[in-house]
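Feature request disguised as a bug: please show the residue count (567) next to Tyr recombinase domain-containing protein in the output. Example input:
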Amino acid sequence: MTSNSIPHYLYKRNHTWWFRKRFVSQGNAIEYRLSLQTASFQRARLLALRLQTLCQQLVASLGAPKKQKNGVMEKSAQEQIRAKLRAKIAEWTAEETEHWFCGATRNEGDLNDYLETLDMVVSDLKERIAYDDKPSLHRVEASAVLDELPHLKATLSEYDYQVIARMVAQAKVKSLQDTRAIILGGDADWLTTSPVSSQGTSRSDVHFLSDMISKYQAENASKEHSQKSQDKYAHSLALTFSFFGNVPISEISLSSGREFRELLASLPEKLKTKEMLETPLLELISKKKATKTIATATANDHLEKVRRFFQWMLDTGYLPDDNPIPKEPLPEPKQSNKAARHAISDEDAVKVFNHQIFTEHRGLVTKKIQHPHHFWLPLLCLFTGIRPNEACLLYVDDIELVGKAWCIRIDKRFDEQKLKTPNALRYIPLHKCLLEIGFVKYVHDLRSLVGGNSRLFPEIKAIKGYHSHKPGEWFNRNIRDKQGLDPSSTLYTFRHAFRDKLVMLNATDEYLNRLMGHKGSPYGSSLLTDVTCMKELIDRIDFAGIVQGIKPYANLQDFRNVAGRTK
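Example output, currently without the count:
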């Protein structure tokens, strides 16, 4: 790489790229230097371009403490500029089309040459918008609209000039695209839009990112997502705000969406939602100097959540153009799905059920089993493939006789119950071994004590909306670690093993989806009235070698605490 191709704001020291920028503010010279902590020129250029904007905001804020956070100019000023730019688009387009149609006789070659010139200019403008690496031109480019709005100039910061310069460039792109459409026989937006309605709705057309995030979260709140899911979305949306700033959403371009995607790959671990809402992302990254970055899977989860947010804005009419967030996920290290979704082995399952809780009905430090879920939860996960959180929220009346088969009903009929997806609504027939161990007898005994409208395991409390959190921790600490299981084994890995056993029995996709609560055919009821075939399929799974040492349930006296009562 020749030195001439390296931008003036980048230099290299000990194989690491550094950013430098010199500012003059209120007569004082300020030089800003920062290690970008990368040896990649492309990565350094991307970070430096974003840092230039951040530096301009910081310097501008020194002399303008009343500016809005993240350097956003007043809404009224933005609306005046947008209205003027709409008029400019119409004016520029009219000039170009008049130049073409009022000229001498044209032939096909002239048309192709003219269209090629238009495309080249549009491409050049888009590149300038994307890189935005010529701050010396911001005032000149912004003057195209500010010369007609001189009263605004005194209120603008250097960052505002940068924003306006980008808006002017985007307006020029729009004008050239409209010119091309008209020459080829189509219509331009400004020809088919009423000036009156445009002026009348200009204020409502400006939608700021923070407002959209609030609307989106309010709408999602009605969907009964778990607290854990809400927190994850809030984290991803805070990340979005921290990166883009509180800008009008129409200004978020495809190129900035690509920058966002690329930056996710180097995001430090453990960024807090609160700090992202208060501080621009690149400033946070430079302060953290983290050695560990988030996993690629986590980065792609953020990318997908943010893309859904922008798609919602597009679908609801707030976002005028395409979704700026790329669909393509970041490439993950090569790894098989099997490795990513660990299933507990039969050998480890044997170790689980050789514990004294199952073979002797003795607790860890008590003569009896401390709580019923210590005994029943691992068994339910083994025999049914149920999600641990679904099992924790079962009610007595969720154990139903469907035809001649005892089943678990996964539903949301009772307090706190939620379906992970609409497809989670289902019946799971109980394996014959689970019946022999005495699960239905336990349900009958509990019904006699507390009634049907009570939870099977009321002692389990929610942590951040998830009831399986504490039981999962207890299992890992007292069963997995003490019995010498694979460190990847959890209550959830019984579910993966259950599915694997169904696959080995050549279960159809229809049965797999129904039993696991996954998306399947949109036809028919989720709650079948005849589960005979599914019952036969489940009973074909051979669990005998895993549970042969288990002592069957006798009565409620097996447990020290039942339904909050000490026995």
